[in-house]
Design a protein that fits this description.
Number of helices of chain A: 4
Oligomer: homodimer
Low-confidence stretches of chain A: none
Order of helices and strands of chain A: EEHEHEEHEHEEEEE
Shape of chain A: globular
Largest sheet of chain A: 8 strands, mixed
Number of strands of chain A: 11
Radius of gyration of chain A: 15 Å
Strand order of the largest sheet of chain A: 5-4-3-6-1-7-11-10
Mean pLDDT of chain A: 96
Distance between the termini of chain A: 15 Å
Chain lengths: 174, 174
């Protein structure tokens, strides 16, 4: 079965973005970026929440991951701005279960927190990969929104970059 | 000048304790614990908030760090339960500035979040040392309470334990 990996940059105080969904403060250059871009080759499907997708959209990016099948989850968007992006408005967990049972590469959950919270609650997230960045935001969008249940993780791999970013791999123990 | 180090266990989602100040879920055995106990020798003063102190008090521990000068910050406690523990009710930042200017070993800030938030706001925290533990709490006491300003950190050292705990050292860039 394909794995679903929640793979995000995160501050030391647990935020994946500022309140307005911008990400100033995360180191934007260095080996951790080239490694990240290379690592995307393990995925052929990406899942994202509407606000995560809209962050790119505001910059004019309608097709953020052209090498992957892209799903955006939203109850409010009426139409996909790009033929490569499929809008999904309901039965999200059901779709994700179906995708996980198909053959293919792993599935990339790139954000946001609401979607991650829902999918963790459904025991659908297999791994959490953090690009833990040497910064405190003080406020913003947390790694998970709302209350999730206590969940044990297994630390499986780490890489330390000169930028101070730590790439941390965890398996979710369901 | 002596350094003030905020040195706490923290979950992957940024919590230092559950809402009720208990800490079930942090690995409680292993080399990371013996290293932690050994590392306390770098300190001869410890600062803590009332609720952090009361966590030990409920277990009958009135003198948690007998080898250190202990300060508990509280506006509500009337009397210290132990002659080795000094209660401080106001001018906290002023006291901490004075302590930092005295000669001696470094100063240990063991929690909680309110005290850490206030001291970070006063630019008094020099280092953040996280025992990053492989668990999600989902809710609880965050690393910092309330909104702090965005703060850049420098990653200075790491150690990875078999328990999956990562000991992460950061210098606060003021």
């Amino acid at each position: 079965m394909r794995k679903l990996k929640y793979y995000v940059a995160c501050t030391i105080d647990g935020f994946i973005a500022h309140e307005d969904h911008t990400i100033d403060g995360f180191p934007s250059e260095g080996e951790h970026i080239t490694d990240y871009l290379e690592s995307l080759k393990q995925f052929d499907v990406v899942l994202m929440g509407r606000r995560t997708y809209e962050f790119g959209l505001k910059l004019g990016v309608t097709n953020p991951y052209p090498a992957m099948k892209q799903y955006v989850f939203s109850r409010t968007m009426k139409e996909s701005p790009d033929e490569n992006v499929e809008l999904v408005s309901d039965n999200i967990a059901e779709l994700v279960r179906k995708l996980k049972n198909e053959t293919g590469k792993d599935i990339y959950l790139c954000g946001g927190a609401d979607l991650a919270t829902m999918l963790l609650g459904e025991n659908l997230i297999d791994e959490i990969i953090l690009k833990l960045s040497p910064v405190l935001f003080g406020s913003g969008i947390p790694l998970f929104s709302g209350v999730i249940k206590q969940t044990a993780l297994e630390h499986t791999d780490s890489k330390i970059y000169a930028s101070g970013v730590l790439l941390l791999h965890y398996r979710v123990k369901n």
